[in-house]
Automatic annotation (TrEMBL):
<feature type="transmembrane region" description="Helical">
    <location>
        <begin position="155"/>
        <end position="182"/>
    </location>
</feature>
<feature type="transmembrane region" description="Helical">
    <location>
        <begin position="211"/>
        <end position="230"/>
    </location>
</feature>
<keyword id="KW-0472">Membrane</keyword>
<dbReference type="GO" id="GO:0005886">
    <property type="term" value="C:plasma membrane"/>
</dbReference>
<protein>
    <submittedName>
        <fullName>Branched-chain amino acid ABC transporter permease</fullName>
    </submittedName>
</protein>
<keyword id="KW-0997">Cell inner membrane</keyword>
<dbReference type="GO" id="GO:0005304">
    <property type="term" value="F:L-valine transmembrane transporter activity"/>
</dbReference>
<dbReference type="InterPro" id="IPR052157">
    <property type="entry name" value="BCAA_transport_permease"/>
</dbReference>
<feature type="transmembrane region" description="Helical">
    <location>
        <begin position="263"/>
        <end position="283"/>
    </location>
</feature>
<dbReference type="GO" id="GO:0015188">
    <property type="term" value="F:L-isoleucine transmembrane transporter activity"/>
</dbReference>
<feature type="transmembrane region" description="Helical">
    <location>
        <begin position="77"/>
        <end position="103"/>
    </location>
</feature>
<dbReference type="GO" id="GO:0015808">
    <property type="term" value="P:L-alanine transport"/>
</dbReference>
<keyword id="KW-1133">Transmembrane helix</keyword>
<keyword id="KW-1003">Cell membrane</keyword>
<dbReference type="InterPro" id="IPR001851">
    <property type="entry name" value="ABC_transp_permease"/>
</dbReference>
<dbReference type="GO" id="GO:1903806">
    <property type="term" value="P:L-isoleucine import across plasma membrane"/>
</dbReference>
<dbReference type="Pfam" id="PF02653">
    <property type="entry name" value="BPD_transp_2"/>
</dbReference>
């Protein structure tokens, strides 16, 4: 164990952990939304994330940008980021819609057992992942360097760059907007009603199918933004990257309290920091192990996660 390495790089490990954790948190929001309403673990959500990530890169390619491109000028950078974010959110939301319509809705109509949903989710995940693998010939796709990784300033001696600010800031902003949407909008009230008691909500005039579709679209949009941020941060994307990231995002959702939106954010940020600390202490090869080990330990003592409040009981 390298305590010197951990303490000497504590600040940088924290900031990079929060940055990666912000991406986990955005993807985790989709898991927790679907589970909160349907009590379903949507394992195909990792491919919803991949759809947005690829859509962002292909959007930049459409503007003539590739992994070797350098973009200057704040206006140009904001334009490329905004357009790619919109396209990524639409692509992920569209993918989530197809999954809900084709894979899950027919099962709901037939009152299929939970195991059928689980198997279908895994099958859909593998099918979509392989489709992207075939389309990309299993080769990595590169993203242009839109945001500089040079330090902007130092906070308590820790360098903070534009990528970290963009990733963490975007995640917090999207979380705030989602929280307002769920707790303040009419559709959000419908989501909370269906999450609490779907049959009673239907008797009160809530269209259950429309609400469920909105849940998938909302969660998919969050995953699309996460895909864009992943491209900006990592700048390399392969078709299979969603599997491990999706598992970690699911872990973050469970860590914070599955079905709890704010718990998903806390769980994602915490998971990113913990795995970075483990990498600094034990070595990078222990990073993934630590991410899942902390989940097992937490669930032994608090099975409902850190916050544990269900979506249906969220405060208005």
């Amino acid at each position: 164990m390298d305590f010197n390495g951990l303490f000497s790089n504590f600040g940088e490990l924290t900031t990079t952990g929060l940055t990666q954790g912000a991406i986990y948190a955005l993807v985790a929001l989709g898991y927790t939304l679907v589970y909160g309403v349907l009590r379903l673990i949507n394992f195909a959500h990792s491919e919803v994330f991949i759809a947005g990530a690829f859509a962002a890169i292909w959007t930049w390619n459409g503007f003539g940008l590739d992994q070797n491109s350098q973009v200057s000028g704040v206006g140009s950078i904001l334009f490329y980021l905004l357009v790619a974010m919109i396209v990524a959110a639409i692509a992920s939301a569209g993918t989530a819609t197809v999954i809900e319509r084709v894979a899950y809705r027919p099962l709901r109509k037939r009152n299929a057992p939970p195991l059928a949903f689980l198997i279908t989710a895994i099958g859909a995940s593998i099918a979509i992942s392989e489709a992207f693998g075939i389309w990309t010939r299993r080769l990595p796709e590169g993203a242009p360097s839109l945001v500089s990784s040079k330090p902007l300033f130092h906070l308590f001696g820790v360098p903070i760059d534009s990528v970290q600010l963009l990733t963490i800031g975007a995640a917090l902003l999207m979380m705030v907007l989602l929280d307002l949407f769920i707790n303040r909008s009419r559709t959000g009230r419908g989501i909370r009603a269906v999450a609490q008691d779907a049959n009673t909500a239907a008797l009160m005039g809530v269209n259950k199918d429309r609400i469920i579709l909105m849940v998938f679209i909302t969660g998919g949009s969050m995953a699309g933004v996460a895909g864009l941020l992943y491209d900006v941060r990592i700048q390399t994307l392969t078709y299979s990257v969603g599997f491990l990231l999706g598992l970690k995002a699911f872990t973050a959702a469970v860590l914070g309290g599955i079905g709890n939106l704010r718990g998903a954010l806390i769980g994602g940020l915490l998971l990113g920091v913990v795995e970075n600390y483990a990498a600094g202490l034990f070595g990078s090869q222990w990073k993934d192990f630590a991410a899942f080990a902390v989940l097992v330990v937490l669930l032994m003592f608090r099975p409902t996660g850190l916050l544990g409040e269900s979506l249906g009981r969220a405060r208005a």
